[in-house]
Amino acid sequence: MMTHATRDIAFMKMHGLGNDFVVLDARVRPVGMTAALAQAIGDRHRGVGFDQLAVIETGDGDADARLTFYNSDGSTAGACGNATRCIARHLMDESGRSEVVLTTERGRLLARDAGDGLTSVNMGQPQLRWDEVPLAHEMDTLELPIEGAPTATGMGNPHCTFFVANAESVDLETRGSEIEHHPLYPQRTNVQFASVIGPDHLRMRVWERGVGVTLASGSSSCATAVAASRRGLTGRRVSIDLDGGRIEIDWREDGVWMTGPTAHVFSGTFMADWLERVS
Questions:
Q1: pTM summary value
Q2: How buried is 145 (Cβ within 10 angstroms: 0-12 exposed, 13-18 middle, 19+ buried)?
Q3: Integer Cα distance of 249 and 153 in angstroms
Q4: Which of 51, 119, 269, 273 has its Cα between 20 and 30 A from that of 184?
């Protein structure tokens, strides 16, 4: 007979620049994640709270692990750059290696130790065609027919980037929620408001679909750097100041590389009786 202790589930709480995650390791023991359970865990008053939840599973082929992501509203996310960096750091510390290969809905991602406590991950090439983002119908993704002429970019999930004079002055909760559900984005969208500080420096604030305002977002940072470069506002390598700190983005020939700090804050256990009540 299975005891409550054997049905408890261990987890890690991590963050990258304040973009916070609950991470479950299903490589040894399967985790029956559902939208309802993700929502319960994501409740910052009755659960643990997170921007995204990540499940680590055994990798296919030469991949060290496969990652699946959930938003705090229980929906799934195709990519989560900061969580990918956090988990890559955990796997590198676990194995003693300086590189790992991860697979997500985005595809095969290479991550490596960048030194000085920083972790880099190649988030792959940006998706620039309207049907890749995706958008509702064919159009130029550089300037969308939305007030403010934002740029659309896919990074495994859809993004909508506005370039504004002062990102600090934007009513992020109102505008972010409005744009997330814009009819041009059939799968909803992440929303960024960015100001150009210099030719290699941006200030950005983020609204994540299925989450809301976040202190940082890795895929949003990648999308914003790509959009700024495409519009001739910056070069292909930029520093981005987010509410949670600074991240470095480098759009290279082999993909968009993201480099920044990670933190493993604490580990804990979800008790079986609580899991039964909320599942």
A1: 0.93
A2: exposed
A3: 15
A4: 51
